Amino acid sequence: MAEFRDKVIAHIKAIQAMITESLESVEGSSFIRESWDREDGNGKGQVNLIQDGQVFEKGGVNYTEIELPLSRSLATYISERGKNVDQNHLSDYKLFAVGVSLVIHPRNPMAPTIHANYRYLELTLNGEVKDFWFAGGTDLTPYYLDEADCIAFHQSLKSACDPLSAEFYPKYKAECDEYFNIKHRGMRRGIGGIFFDDVNQWDKQELMDLQRRCGEAFVASYPEIVRKHKDDPFTKAQRRWQKIRRGHYIEFNIAYDRGTKFGLVTPNSNIEAILMPCPLSARWEYKYKIEPGSEEDRLVQILRVPREWVS
């Protein structure tokens, strides 16, 4: 058990380093690196953060590693995810989790926001692994639609998934469209990507290789998309729309996101890291009107009815 944990920890840290370096190359300067430890000694992590940058208004690539006795709230949470936990013997269980999570908010509204996370979790009973699963995914949130960007992003993901199974990308692309649904607004958060959870039907090494390829797909696609748009001209109205859409982004995270909920029910969690995905600025306007036929309206139509970007 310990040998594999060391292996998966090194694997997740390598993804964090690879992605951080690719973003630093776009920003032209280093991210702040801040290590932290849980007060109870049951976890640690590292936040790689950019704030008020030239290209990125705010962003973070965060590593987290925890091993916790199951609290009742945490046991309820993972039971709702289909894990079998005897609520009368919680002291016999522990949950180990290691992952990298990122959200990047560029300054320019022509450049999209992106989210990604890749995780490994183990449920142990009296020191023996009772269950394990891999999880992760990524989604792209443009403010103005560039179809070439969307196609390149999805193609990179499909190419990362296909070596594991030709069925993986279409299945988890559909799950991404379903998961990142802002139900109270009747639209998706962005143009999708992939989202998988509770996956353990393949060999552990194969699933680690999948996560690595997805990290490499990020490096191959997203920095180039930002370089393409970081110097595009934009108006005050377009900046205003970016802030409106960022408000929608926050609504999803607070109301629906599993990772946020997991963090908030985890005792002594790092709240600053959990809420890192929130942008520096957002807007909520009463009855904000979108002009029919506008570029904003064109995006919203895609958000309401997800599209298949690659075949």
UniProtKB/TrEMBL annotation:
> What is one cellular component GO term in this UniProt entry?
cytoplasm
- Tell me the pathway: Porphyrin-containing compound metabolism; protoporphyrin-IX biosynthesis; protoporphyrinogen-IX from coproporphyrinogen-III (O2 route): step 1/1
Keyword terms of this UniProt record: Oxidoreductase, Porphyrin biosynthesis
SUPFAM superfamilies, sorted: Coproporphyrinogen III oxidase
What EC number(s) does the entry state?
1.3.3.3
Molecular function as annotated in GO: coproporphyrinogen oxidase activity
Q: InterPro entries per the record?
A: Coprogen_oxidase_aer, Coprogen_oxidase_aer_sf
> Is Glycoprotein included in the keywords of this UniProt record?
no
Pfam family of the protein (one) = Coprogen_oxidas
Its signal peptide is: none
Q: Which GO terms describe its biological process?
A: protoporphyrinogen IX biosynthetic process
Give the quaternary structure: Homodimer.
Q: Which family does it belong to?
A: Belongs to the aerobic coproporphyrinogen-III oxidase family.
Tell me what this protein is called. Answer: coproporphyrinogen oxidase
